[in-house]
Amino acid sequence: MALSPGDPHSYARPELARVTHTHLELNVDFGLKVLQGKAILDIEWEPSSNEIILDSYGLVVSSVTDTLTQINLEHQVGHCGTLGSKFAIQLLQNVNYCNNRCRIQIEYKTRPSSPALYWLTPEQTANGNYSFLLSNNKLTYARAWFPCQDTPSIKTTYSAMVTIFGNFGPLERLLPTSLIGLSPDEGTRFVPYEKGYMFLIELQNILDKQFYGNFRAFLKFYLTKFSQKSINTNDWKSYLYSYFPKRLLELNSIDWNFWFDDPNNYPPRLFDTANTKLETVCISLAERWINWDDAADLQSTFGSTDIKYFCHRQKVYFLYYLHASHTILSVKKIESMAQLYQFNYQNDEIRFIWLRLCIKSRWRIMVPAALIFAIKFCSPKFTYPIFQDLYKWSD
Prior knowledge:
By secondary structure, the chain is an alpha+beta fold. It is about 35% helix and about 20% strand. The protein has helices spanning about 185, 195-205, 215-225, 235-245, 250, 255-260, 275-290, 310-325, 330-340, 350-360, 365-375, 380-390; strands spanning about 15-30, 35-45, 50-55, 60-65, 75, 85-90, 100-110, 115-120, 130-135, 155-165, 170. It has a five-stranded mixed β-sheet, with no helix packed on it. It has a three-stranded antiparallel β-sheet with strand order 3-6-5, with no helix packed on it. The chain has a three-stranded mixed β-sheet with strand order 8-9-11, with no helix packed on it. The longest helix has 15 residues, at about 195-205. The two termini are about 45 Å apart. One of its GO terms (molecular function) is epoxide hydrolase activity. Keywords: Hydrolase, Metal-binding, Metalloprotease, Protease, Zinc. This is Leukotriene A-4 hydrolase-like. Its cofactor is Zn(2+). InterPro entries: Aminopeptidase_N-like_N, Aminopeptidase_N-like_N_sf, ARM-type_fold, M1_LTA-4_hydro/amino_C_sf, M1_LTA4H, Peptidase_M1_C, Peptidase_M4/M1_CTD_sf.
């Protein structure tokens, strides 16, 4: 079934009919590991449309009703593939609705295998007393626990009434967020966030040469123009060119394939373009470690106070600089750094790039820690790069 022309990860067609409000009434069954109840959707549609298309992933739909007339609506849930199913509902055409607005009620239940719901037994929780349910709407998971138009272009209000029987822990509900034929869950494994950050810095340096603030102004207009819309990389690039019609020479000089198509390829000195005062301090310290002769005395060269006044972002930046460098630090240098800076006891983002730096330097005793970290957090952002680094460690 065809995906939306506006979003390659959704079947929804909000330009024809869209959800404006969602109300959920759900019962939580920890025994069966399912949510069961109903979703009541407020809908607006174009006069030329006779259906609304939603996204679904494994939902078992028992009925769809027009709440005004109590008439059962014809509906069809398509084959469930990587991106779930197309859920098409026929709207009544012979009813005098006000301004093409109606309300429908969908009775359904989730499946125990829903990727959006994490069911924890009491033994899996910190205090060991209660069961725990976590819902996860990242990427395209929202459609796996309630029928919705699971695309970033749709922002709706919502309300919910959740009933839980027996002893339970908190139910966490996250608001929905939303490569062709590729699940976003797979796609995010290949998103190098630090390279994207540096690409924006590169663009700013190029486009702000004549007048400082040009690129910032572009970003403000970009956010306004594409607010509540789904776009792809080509849309963004086209708008960049249209916004700077007199800067085509500079824009055409950019190696777009390098920045867009090879997530693992970095410029030899990627961080040269980042020259703020805070970043310069990080670069200076990193270069000292790169150039230090590890046969020399450690205490006379470095100390724990080196990063005492570094903010979180500076610590991450310092480690990313070392990781992106062509120089591979010796294990002795990494051991010394661990002793002085205690990176093993920092937050997740710092520990993530620290572990990757340890793997790059082939510090074997950190392999178990890297595996535990990857398994514990189980996020493509953290897990895939670590396993990829370990896979490349052939010796």
